[in-house]
Automatic annotation (TrEMBL):
Gene3D superfamilies: 1.20.1530.20. InterPro entries: BilAc:Na_symport/Acr3, Bilac:Na_transpt, Na+/solute_symporter_sf. This is Hepatic sodium/bile acid cotransporter. Its main location: membrane. Keywords: Cell membrane, Glycoprotein, Ion transport, Lipid transport, Membrane, Sodium, Sodium transport, Symport, Transmembrane, Transmembrane helix, Transport. Belongs to the bile acid:sodium symporter (BASS) (TC 2.A.28) family. One of its GO terms (cellular component) is plasma membrane.
Length: 313
């Protein structure tokens, strides 16, 4: 690695995380957060799904595909990350509960400060990797996310007119910065990028979000939540905060230790976005093909108005 290029990539990665968390904070409203906290059933189920399903999925896939130690750490960190703001876009496309989506992202981001190191410690016991994880660096990175997120919440609360503008500008900067990181990483690591594109890591990147989507939906269905909440919890479970994951891998680990594996979250997000878009497409097709709901017809029976179903034949 070129020290100057490596430092530039780390700096851009931190900037991306900062912009992402400010934009995420701009989507959060204190009143809506308070309302869901007072009625916490949906949020509780969603948080259990986020920190229960994804870390276990990451652990299981790392075992099944017999990943190398540093590859297993990379996958576990990705699986233990909280939800990201991309899930809010997919929840909107799936006509989910946007309030629940935003509150779930908020809660998982805050809880990650305690949950992520704890889960990493527990699951790393299965690989004898507890000494390979820089817990101090991860805690610092997680704590740093709360500051820009708080800034975004404050902006949305005190100057709500700025929120949409910040989100749009932030998205543009994110796209440009992501391209810059891709180009700089390609120059820096050269042919070793094929380490990230190994069949095992590609299979893990493909199966992790898909498993999260499916098990999130199944879990919320078993808890008898409505359709909106089921779709919301499904996408929130499968969508990870990739910017946070990239920052942890790039900043908390030494370059000679992590190598090109800090690019794994970029591979993950390609499959995550592709599978989520496929779910949106299938849901839209289902909406178009399903028969229209029957409207009840009201009749007066014994001086009372009652809804009855009129025979179609």
């Amino acid at each position: 690695f070129s020290p100057a290029m490596d430092m530039a990539i780390s700096a851009i990665t931190i900037i991306i995380l900062f912009i992402t968390m400010v934009s995420l904070g701009c989507t959060m409203e204190i009143a809506k957060i308070r309302a869901h906290i007072l009625r916490p059933k949906g949020v509780a189920i969603a948080v259990v799904a986020q920190f229960g399903i994804m870390p276990l999925t990451a652990f299981s896939l790392a075992k099944v595909f017999q990943l190398a130690p540093i590859e297993a750490v990379t996958v576990l960190i990705c699986g233990c990350c909280p939800g990201g703001n991309l899930s809010n876009l997919f929840a909107l496309a799936l006509q989910g509960d946007m309030n629940l989506s935003i509150v779930m992202t908020t809660c998982s981001t805050v809880l990650a400060l305690a949950m992520m190191p704890t889960l990493l410690y527990l699951y790393c016991q299965g690989f004898d990797l507890e000494n390979a994880v820089p817990y101090t660096g991860i805690l610092i990175a997680l704590a740093m996310t709360l500051v820009p997120c708080g800034v975004g919440i404050a902006i949305n609360h005190w100057i709500p007119g700025w929120s949409k503008m910040i989100i749009k500008i932030g998205l543009s900067i994110l796209l440009i910065a992501s391209v810059a990181i891709g180009v700089m990483s390609g120059i820096t690591i050269g042919g070793s990028v094929w380490v990230v594109l190994s069949p095992q890591l590609m299979a893990v990147a493909c199966l992790m979000p898909l498993t999260g989507f499916l098990l999130g939906f199944v879990m919320s269905s078993l808890c008898k939540l409505n359709g909106q909440c089921r779709r919301t919890i499904a996408v929130e479970t499968g969508c990870q905060n990739i910017q946070l994951c990239s920052t942890i891998l790039k900043v908390a680990f030494l370059p000679e230790v992590i190598g090109p594996l800090y690019l794994f979250p970029l591979l993950y997000i390609i499959f995550q976005a592709g599978e989520a878009l496929l779910l949106v497409l299938l849901y839209r097709c289902y909406q178009m093909l399903r028969p229209p709901a029957e409207e009840p017809t009201y009749w007066t029976v014994n001086s009372k108005v009652e809804a009855v179903k009129v025979p179609t034949c």
